[in-house]
Design goal:
Layout: E1 3-5, E2 25-26, E3 32-34, H1 39-56, H2 60-67, H3 71-84, H4 91-103, E4 111-113, E5 121-124, E6 127-134, E7 137-145, E8 159-163, E9 166-167, H5 168-176, H6 184-193, E10 197-199, E11 210-216, E12 222-228, E13 230-233, E14 248-250, H7 252-265, H8 267-279, E15 298-305, E16 308-315, H9 322-335, E17 341-344, E18 350-352, H10 353-361, E19 372-375, H11 379-386, H12 388-394, H13 402-406, H14 408-411, E20 419-420, H15 424-428, E21 438-442, H16 449-459, E22 464-467, E23 477-481, H17 482-488, E24 504-513, E25 532-533, H18 538-542, H19 546-558, E26 563-571, E27 574-582, E28 586-591, E29 594-600, E30 605-611, E31 618-625, E32 628-636
Parallel strand pairs: 16-17, 17-21, 21-22, 22-25
Antiparallel strand pairs: 1-3, 2-13, 4-24, 5-10, 5-13, 6-7, 8-9, 8-11, 11-12, 14-18, 15-16, 19-20, 19-24, 23-24, 26-27, 27-30, 28-29, 28-31, 31-32
Helix pairs in contact: 1-3, 3-4, 5-6, 9-10, 10-16
């Protein structure tokens, strides 16, 4: 079944190579050759797809109700056709049938992965298209164009009108229905981003070999240009270790699009990543950005408006180990202005859920309750959560879910009781690192771990959610692959076997349940509805989000600010602190987690003298405004 692209060499998994237009080859020069599989091999793929969906897929009831589909029946029918047809159909036909069945679930965690997914192949055009609004009407503009594809007319900023004679809006709409996004906002956003970049992962390559683009120049002239679809290799996405990471939730297709975009249109970022990897140099790719040890994930800079400096932090992914991710996240927070922070989560495909929840806790004094996740109640998930070898293999304890799954035969419940993936004690040990007001920017491409971050941000009232789409991508689950289950499940009737020629299936195995103000609500299909909407402008697309950032700054300028500055003196077994405050009317002091003192702040300052029991004591100052906890500052006596 392997689809072989003759003449294209996948790039290094280390990302040490940069994809350029000259590296790629025209799609018309190649034939996509599928390794034909026997009837028995094809029916084995279908049988295992049925087994994994019946025994592990956590969203099945919700998808049936929301979309009126019966995927299991579709798979059984396909199996019958494959087993009984007189002449076996070409492999690419079988692939398209199976892709279509999985796509009907509208769940980007649950996909049939074509066998060449590991090769890192993508098909692309030499430009990007982004949309903006003008007088309430959506327009489409070429936001980036490779220099080798530029001419005097087709340059960044031209308005794209038609592709192959069809209005670009209609093309995006038709493509949106093939992307599998969970809601209208997610599908439209993916239709737009897949317009010029197609990762050949769970989408087949385009049928056409080239496109004719009709566009309008800045002078108002309408012209046409023809562009070949090109094929190239891009660095691999998840590492082998990440592919068996129990806490991962990610849209692998969107992640692949980002790799192509970065390699083609932001080679300076690729070079910065290489520099950091090779020399541990944390130099920024953009001279305006703060130095950063994870440039593939973060970029941070100061934003100046009305004589005030604000912080801007772009978080592109959560695909990093929690300790590494949080260390750099916290470092950047402390180096950014404390007057207000813009966190830009747009296009974030997800990653490690623990990384997302730890970073969220560092933004607020309020205790963050980690999101609850549920398994499907089935004999297979009971084995998964009962066998100690499974928890050992994934370094994550699944036994909390065991009891409710075991009782399902008596309760008749479809899903287990919810338990967190991130241990509560892990969040309890996270200190607040940012103290100013916060605006979170999201769009329809925020998915999985990014959905979790945005939902908990909203549910716990951390700040204001500003959206450029009507909802986030609605990936409310933790996804595992069939190959991962084959690796970790004990021997027995529910252990899948690896599929022929590297084909794989991923499945949403634990679903997310929101908390706080939206307690009990599902994240899947619905996503996070922003508190405010920003319609992207031409200035945003052409001039680095200038109007979007201005909108966020306007929100920040109206939000209250809370601060405590502590002038401290340490002596043997004694701490003396003079606290200067802003917006605080009460300070409670805790010593090693126990109440120690409480002072009403009337003049904007307060003095504390604390006797210490040992050099390991921890002093915590909790600031309140109108009985609401608004900040926490910890001091560690270990410095004595």
């Amino acid at each position: 079944m392997a689809l072989i692209l003759r003449g294209v060499t996948p790039m290094s998994t280390t990302g040490s190579d940069v994809l350029t237009l000259s590296d790629a080859v025209p799609l018309r020069s190649y034939s996509w050759e599928c390794n034909e599989l026997s009837v028995s091999a094809r029916t084995d793929i279908i049988d295992q797809a049925i087994d994994i969906l019946e025994n592990f897929y956590v969203h099945m009831a919700q998808k049936r109700a929301a979309f009126g589909i019966d995927v299991l029946q579709q798979l059984r029918l396909l199996r019958q056709y494959v087993a009984t047809e007189h002449q076996i159909k070409p492999m690419h036909v079988f692939n398209r049938q199976l892709l279509g069945i999985f796509r009907s679930l509208r769940d980007l965690h649950t996909i049939y992965k074509l066998s060449f997914a590991e090769q890192g192949i993508a098909v692309f055009l030499p430009f990007l298209v982004e949309s903006f609004f003008e007088n309430g009407v959506r327009h489409y503009v070429a936001s980036n164009v490779l220099e080798t594809a530029c001419d005097d007319a087709f340059v960044p900023g031209v308005e794209v009108l038609y592709l192959n004679g069809a209005p670009v809006k209609a093309v995006i709409g038709a493509l949106a229905e093939r992307t599998g996004g969970s809601n209208d906002a997610a599908r439209r956003a993916r239709g737009e981003i897949y317009l010029t970049i197609r990762p050949v992962l769970a989408l087949p390559p385009p049928d056409e070999h080239w496109v004719v683009v009709r566009f309008r120049t800045s002078a108002g002239e309408e012209k046409e240009r023809q562009f070949d679809w090109r094929v190239g290799g891009v660095p691999a996405g998840l590492s082998a270790k990440q592919k068996i990471e129990a806490a991962f939730g990610i849209d692998e297709q969107l992640q692949a699009v980002h790799r192509v975009r970065k390699n083609l249109f932001a080679p300076n970022v690729v070079m910065a990543e290489r520099l950091v990897a090779d020399t541990a140099n944390a130099a920024a790719a953009n001279k305006e950005d703060l130095p950063c040890a994870l440039p593939q994930i973060f970029s941070a800079r100061r934003v100046y408006s009305d004589n005030v400096y604000y912080g801007y932090l772009r978080v592109r992914s959560f695909a990093a180990a929690p300790e590494l991710f949080f260390s750099e996240f916290a470092s950047l927070l402390t180096r950014l202005p404390q007057n207000g922070l813009i966190i830009d989560l747009r296009d974030n495909a997800g990653g490690n859920i623990i990384s997302a929840e730890m970073s969220l806790q560092s933004l607020t004094a309020k205790p963050i309750l980690p999101m609850q996740f549920q398994f499907l109640n089935s004999p297979a998930t009971l084995i998964l959560c009962s066998d100690p070898s499974v928890s050992q293999a994934i370094a994550s304890d699944l036994t909390p879910w065991r009891e409710s799954i075991l009782r399902a035969i008596e309760t008749g419940a479809t899903h287990s009781v919810g338990h967190p993936i991130t241990p509560q004690e892990t969040l309890s040990n996270v200190e607040q690192k940012y103290f100013g007001p916060i605006v979170l920017i999201v769009n329809g491409l925020c998915y999985s771990a990014a959905d979790v971050f945005a939902a908990s941000f909203q549910d716990h009232g951390v700040g204001v959610v500003l959206g450029t789409d009507d909802a986030t991508g609605a990936g409310g689950a933790n996804g595992w692959s069939l190959s991962m289950l084959a690796h970790i499940m004990p021997e027995g009737s529910y252990r899948p076997s690896r599929l022929a020629n590297g084909v794989d299936i991923s499945v949403a195995i634990r679903r997310a349940i929101r908390g706080g103000t939206n307690a009990g609500m599902l994240l899947e299909n619905f996503g996070v509805v922003p508190d405010e909407i920003h319609q992207m402008t031409r200035g945003d697309v052409i001039s680095h989000n200038q109007d979007l950032i201005s909108h966020a700054v306007q929100i920040l300028s109206k939000l209250p600010r809370y601060a405590i500055k502590i002038k401290e003196q340490w002596a043997e077994k004694r701490f003396v602190g003079l606290c200067t405050t802003q917006g605080i009317d009460r300070i409670d002091v805790y010593l090693d987690g126990r109440p120690h003192a409480s002072v009403d702040v009337n003049s904007g300052s307060a003095r504390f003298e604390i006797l210490l029991a040992s050099a390991e004591d921890v002093i915590e100052f909790r600031g309140f405004h109108e009985q609401r906890l608004v900040l926490r500052v910890r001091k560690h006596a270990v410095r004595l």
